[in-house]
Amino acid sequence: MHTVIRRYQGVQDTGEVARRAVEEFAPQLRDAPGFQGYWVVDAGNGVLATISVFESEEAAEESTAAAATWVQENLAQLVPNPPQVTKGDTAGVSAEVPV
Q1: CATH of domain 2-89
Q2: pLDDT at 60 over 70
Q3: What percent of the chain has pLDDT over 90?
Q4: What is the tens place of the pLDDT at every residue in 61-77?
Q5: Rounded distance, CA 94 to CA 74, Å?
Q6: Where in the chain does DSSP place strands (E)?
Q7: 3-state DSSP assignment of residue 99
Q8: pTM to 2 decimals?
Q9: Strand partners of residue 84
């Protein structure tokens, strides 16, 4: 598995961005090969993070490019800064909880 965490700062309306990410962007990811999961974390104070998990590094990289395009086309006014991206092989999972 490969995980990508994108951390956005300066988000103007984290609740709206989180809602739209789940409702509008997540369905695109679900159709990607090797999709394992997508989570949105509202950390408060204009900070939002997304976590994407895929079976392959290639699919995870494609999700980052897709996210950048989607944010630019749909949320540029609400998400003014590019994300800090952390990515790598998933070292382990201690529990899986169905959503």
Answers
A1: 3.30.70.100
A2: yes
A3: 72
A4: 889 999 999 999 999 99
A5: 35
A6: 2-8, 35-44, 47-54, 84-89
A7: coil
A8: 0.87
A9: 7
